[in-house]
Amino acid sequence: MARLAVKLTPGAASDRIDGWDADAEGRPVLKVRVRARPIEGEANEALVRLLAKALGLPRSAVSVQRGGQSRTKILVIEGLSEDEAKARLTDL
Fold first, then answer.
1. d(C-alpha 25, C-alpha 35), whole Å
2. Cα dihedral across residues 62, 43, 30, 32: positive or negative
3. To the nearest 10°, the Cα dihedral for 79, 71, 7, 39?
4. What is the pLDDT of residue 90?
5. If DSSP codes are grouped into helix, strand and coil, which group holds residue 52?
6. pLDDT digit string (tens) for 35-91?
7. Where are the beta strands (DSSP E) in the chain?
8. Do residues 31 and 19 touch, judged by C-beta distance below 8 A?
9. How many other CB atoms are found less than 10 A from the CB of residue 8?
10. 36, 44, 63, 68: which sits with the fewest CB atoms below 10 Å from its CB?
11. Could you tell me what percentage of the chain is helix, strand and coil, using 3-state DSSP and rounding each to the nearest 5?
12. Pick from 14, 10, 67, 73: nearest CA to 39
């Protein structure tokens, strides 16, 4: 099981993964943009669907563990280690 920090930007022109960055404390954060607005969990659902597709996993394998109301979120990915998930997302 992998845990990934994600910085989500809702309301973007397109759904896309912008790559890796570092937060204020130097930890790796995946930058993601989605078209969905942050209304009734739509942006979180779009994020989960986008990452599941990018990782080649079913939607049920990806979930928001923490930060549902925040732009910075922690996602849990079942079936992959953190290194495997990061490698798949880096190769995009």
1. 28
2. positive
3. 70
4. 84
5. helix
6. 999 999 999 999 999 999 999 999 999 999 999 899 999 999 999 999 999 999 887
7. 2-9, 16-22, 28-33, 62-66, 72-77
8. yes
9. 24
10. 68
11. 30, 35, 35
12. 10
- Does 92 score more than 80 pLDDT? no
Alpha carbon distance 13, 88 (integer Å): 24
Cα(79)–Cα(1) distance, rounded to whole angstroms? 6
Phi-psi region of 51 (alpha: psi -120 to 50; beta: other; left: phi over 0): alpha
> Tokens 């130097």 appear where?
26
Could you give the dihedral angle defined by the CA atoms of residues 89, 37, 10 and 91, in that order, rounded to the nearest 10 degrees?
10
